[in-house]
## 1
Amino acid sequence: MNVAVNVDAREDIPVWLAYGTPVFTVLAALAVSAVALVVLDVNPVAAYATMFVETLFTEFGLTETLTKAVPLILTGLAVYLPLKAGLFNIGAEGQLVAGALAGTWIGLNLSLPGLALVPLMFVAAAVAGGIWAGIPAYMRAKWDVNEIITSLLLTFVALEIQSYLLRGPMQGGTGNFPQSERFSEAATIPELVSGVHAGLLVAVCMVVVTYVLMTRTRLGFEITFVGSNDEAARQAGMSKFYVYLLVFVVGGAFAAMGGISEIAGAQGRYRAGFEPGYGFTAIPIALLGRNSAFKVLLAGLFFAVLFVGGSSMEVAFGVPAALVEIIQALVILFLITAEFFKSYRVGIDIDRGPTEAPAQPQGGDD
């Protein structure tokens, strides 16, 4: 018996596969992660009930989820927008830090009313994040330098600058902790609802702006066109240089606003390590929501649930905190797998070989 695997390119993607990929990806990641829970002698049903049900149906869990979602949504947009142009912004973490530093400096050094100071902190953060993201964008657009490497390396530069400033010029408070002074009331982002700061409104507004940009404007069409076929876009008179710079600079501004939202809204002061991998988590968020800015919003909320619910599960069952990172990695793995099956149809042919003819009955003499 011979078995042959046939891989053929799809002409059309089934609707159920196109729209079901994010759901299948998440379910597969949770199913595989359940194996790790079983190995740790933890009931997966009880653990996931703690992670999702208690997080979404208690006031504390819901408040924490919405607060965590703000930087995740904004950094997700920071990766999503360049992705639509065919670029990978791996440096959202560095852009988040650059924006948080710039916004913090404004908040600590200017004496203005809150209605003027908080918007100015956001503007300063967005400018710093845009400039930081503009460096790899310019290098890619001008000299075709790989933006994955440059944006990632600049993240480590931003983290080193953060370490220096919080142990030097910007250090405040008591002791030798790498942190700034506490923000004044005027420099603190006000609450939108009980326990949730107004940064959530900023994140939702940026989602709407991104959606309108990508679906209702000529610029959004150019971004998508350049991302799908940059050579054809060039022949059509579109500027790849301009598009590359734009998506990275705007993406960097989004990530930076996520940074200052977390610092001035949730933390109350700048602390080293305030960003538990938000910029890197933005990668699976953008991949999950790559078809729409509103899907980025939903993916950001999902990963916020993972962060908050993962902490609850760690306390309740004693599971390692790394389990959330395992789920994130599995989401990326299954997303890549799903993209393959969206592009190709896989079939199996089984050849059982020649079939022997049945033996003829022997006739006897009458």
## 2
Amino acid sequence: MQFQQLAYFVAVADARHFTRAAEAVHVSQPSLSQQIKALEKELGAALFSRARGNITLTDAGAALLPLARRILADADTARHEVLELAQLRRGRVRLGATPSLATGLLPDVLRTFHDRHPGIRLIIEEGGSHDLVRHLARGALDLALVVLPLPSPSPALTTVELFQEDLVVVSSAGDEAPASPLRIADLEGRPMVMFRHGYDLRDLTLAACRAAGFEPYLTVEGGEMDAVLGFVRAGLGIGVVPRMVATRAGHDLRVTPLARPGLRRTVALAHRSDVAPPRAARVLQNVLLTAATGLRS
């Protein structure tokens, strides 16, 4: 079994078409078909069903696809690791982060890292913790900043708690100032702007409101972090966001703390347990750990 054969197999699985797959990997269609047949012969099973021109995965193909993606991702990571020079003059780091952490934590951290290692290319993937864990598991990320507890804990991942952070209520500076601090119960009946499904902050806020005995009144829902802050600025409702994000949001938003025990989230750094992160990723990990030291409370 060769890496090239696996790459051709993944290309056909993605395109569901041999000619388009051949174009995507820059080989002739007969060459690609020949390599797929050789792979099927070696494995002793058909990988694709070719019925009336429709290309679908067989059971064997469906079982192989996630493994092939992971093998190819690991090979790509190994290639970049070998290419890195001793002084970290070049290379890459693929870092996943929830949108709120990308907005609140990463700008200063990445600035510090880039100043020290300007040749390292930083590739940032934003998403919810659930999606980031999935990307880590299949080798598409080196590190990920996630919120604990994870939706689906995995023994294949190692997580290191970085810090805990308070959530606060933000409102338009033009609205009447709410009482300070606010209790969760005080949010009942107030117009609220809510994040899209899949956001850790959405799940945390809704759970807190329901635990207090009410369903929040949502005027707008489905936005990303920047959109939610913009909706709040426009006076469409309040929002519940991390303090770090609120601090960076500007003077046109009013920040009100929540009364104790309030709401807190636990931020952690995750990576695969079975493969050590590339060298450049380990250096970024140390920068993140140093930054987190000053955020622990």
## 3
Amino acid sequence: MSGNLTKASETSRRPRGWGRAAAAAFFLTPGLIALIVLAIVPMILMLTYMFFPRGRFGGVVYEFTLENFERLSDPLYLGVIGDSFVIAGTVTLLALLIGYPAAYAIAQLPPRWKTIALLAIMLPFWTNFLIRIYAWIVLLSGPGLVNGALTGIGLIDEPLDLLYNEGTIVLGLLYGYLSLMILPIYSAVEKLDPRLREASANLGASPARTFFSVTLPLTLPSALIGAVLVFVPSFGNYVVPELLGGGKAIMLGNMIRDQFLKARDWPFGATLSLVMIVITFILLIAQAVASRRVRNA
């Protein structure tokens, strides 16, 4: 009798198990197909092209070579990678210096004003990135609003050359990715237990001591996440250097685009893309390790 009940229960469980597996497969299959087609297959192709030379008139010659890796040691390409590091690092540092106080201030606002402030931060993301960059061109050009305002109040006699330099590139990237720094820090500050700061104050710590001993260590992992979110797209961006920099400052993203679309050197373009991917993985690993150490400290 008990054996028949056991078999019956196992039989009744099988349809449920198969149903759950079928449902999981149904919902996962589209995402897996998109991941394979849009990410894994291009990655395999890129890793393959790195070991082949460029054809005489473009394309790929399927003969094994390590020439593309040797070209990476050229001072020209190393200089571009170094300049990209400096610009992306500057943008990240400025985003941290501006974003952390902004996120902290927003977290202290009343709920109504907090919602308005967050909406103001997210609002630019609802506009196309290119449109926002062209808006900066209108603002900073010779007859633009900034020069017009400065001339109107008598601070300058002639329009300033505000476009097509590294400072403008930094400004454009900072404007484009600042919210990626503010939002994770705001989330961390918002979740802080206020009793921790109250306990620190009750023990006689000053507001500055409370911030550096309690608030900053607990929100530092989110700040590191924000730093990665700002650095990575800044490092590989090619739209802002092209439009606001006028092509005078070449970054890694511009060089990769030129190798694929202008020079038609897909193998070397794939090699440069690998450099960006490796740097991204290194930053992600460093951020994870640093965050773990901060939490365990």
